[in-house]
Design goal:
The chain is an alpha+beta fold and 361 residues long. Helices cover 44% and strands 22% of the residues. The longest helix has 37 residues, at 16-52. Residues 3-45 form the Transposase putative helix-turn-helix domain. This is Transposase.
Length: 361
């Protein structure tokens, strides 16, 4: 028995008024992010200009704090002037935008100093209206509705109907084995979702073959090949949907799409076709994600230890002949998914060298 942090995601069916409220909160988060970024950028530009005049470090304009606390403090002092409408949304919308900005700036600063692993990150950019819609709530009245498994509560939005039952989370909450810590609403492929971050007590049974260590080689022809000789076929969800996807894209090319140069707005028929394309992409992504999670859950429940192949996915997608198949197989998701499943059982999932696969042993 152990306490783990787990996410539960549910699709929503909001009313038109509730959808307008959700969009307003997501827009408020984007506004706060852009406001804070503009403030920090102006401070950095001012210091850079002063340094070019020959001023020493002590004579430069003090740097604006970009910690989450410092950004929130500055926002509270300026919100009445820069956003007199701020009371229309929950304060969490603005706080989540500033928290995201603080994380982005910290990652950029650590990457510049060389203390952050991975590729080098650039300075954060302003978010446009086309950016993904999302908003996070950590305080306020949010969570499940008592005795109702088809509705959830969100701050300032109210009670929203879910597209699916919430019983898989409600049962744990009713038994006192789970506590909801935060809620994140997002909009993807024409549908709203809410994701709850939950502290949950799990008592998963021991693995069926606890004394067996298995090596997993990820690939494109086969999704995974185990050191035990078992082969996991690649379902090729994208290949199955390619025919319909090509048809819809040809259809969209015959519609009147947007043109920034002339200011032409897209036709309703173009919008409908694009919505169908987004829906098809979402179906492929959901099927791929579902298969990977089922595979990784089976691995963790079956074997005592798992060792993954450390593939250079970024290098694979640069090859134009392999890019589509590598992305379609979900190899990039196939690596963190077993580690996430292993964390739920407090188990580490190490990696091994790509050029020494288990099949070569």
């Amino acid at each position: 028995m152990s306490m783990v942090l787990q996410a539960y995601r549910f699709a929503l069916d909001p009313s038109p008024g509730q959808e307008a409220g959700l969009r307003s909160h997501c827009g408020a988060q984007r506004f706060a992010f852009n406001w804070g970024l503009g403030r920090v950028k102006a401070s950095l530009d001012q210091r850079r200009a002063e340094a070019s005049y020959g001023l020493d470090a002590d004579g430069l304009t003090p740097l604006v704090s970009w910690s989450a606390y410092g950004l929130r403090k500055g926002w509270n002092q300026a919100k009445d002037a820069v956003a007199p409408w701020w009371q229309e949304n929950s304060k969490e919308a603005y706080s989540s935008g500033l928290a995201n900005l603080a994380t982005a700036l910290r990652n950029w600063d650590d990457s510049k100093k060389g203390t952050r692993r991975g590729r080098k990150l650039g300075f954060p950019r302003f978010k446009g209206k086309r950016a993904g819609l999302s908003c996070r709530f950590t305080t306020g009245s949010f969570g499940l509705v008592d005795g109702d498994r088809r509705h959830v509560k969100l701050p300032r939005i109210g009670v929203v109907r879910t597209h699916e039952s919430t019983r898989k989370l409600a049962r744990h909450v009713e038994r006192g084995r789970a506590r909801i810590r935060s809620a994140t609403v997002s909009y993807r492929a024409g549908r709203w979702f809410v994701s709850f971050s939950v502290e949950i007590i799990r008592d998963d049974p021991a693995s069926a073959r606890l004394d067996v260590t298995v090596g997993v080689d990820l690939g494109v022809k086969f999704l995974a090949v185990l050191s035990t000789g078992e082969v996991i076929a690649n379902p090729k969800h994208l290949e199955v949907a390619l025919r319909e996807l090509r048809r819809l894209q040809r259809q969209a090319s015959r519609r009147t799409g947007p043109d920034r140069r002339s200011g032409q707005k897209p036709s309703n028929r173009w919008r409908k076709t694009q919505a169908r394309i987004e829906k098809l992409h979402a179906q492929v992504a959901n099927a791929r994600r579902d298969g990977l999670h089922k595979l990784t859950t089976w691995l963790v429940r079956t074997f005592g230890a798992i060792v993954l192949e450390d593939l250079n996915v970024a290098g694979m997608v640069k090859n134009r002949r392999r890019a589509r198949t590598a992305r379609a197989a979900g190899i990039a998701t196939g690596r963190p998914a077993p580690k996430y499943a292993g964390q739920r059982r407090h188990r580490k999932v190490p990696t091994h060298d790509t050029f020494y696969t288990f099949r070569e042993r």
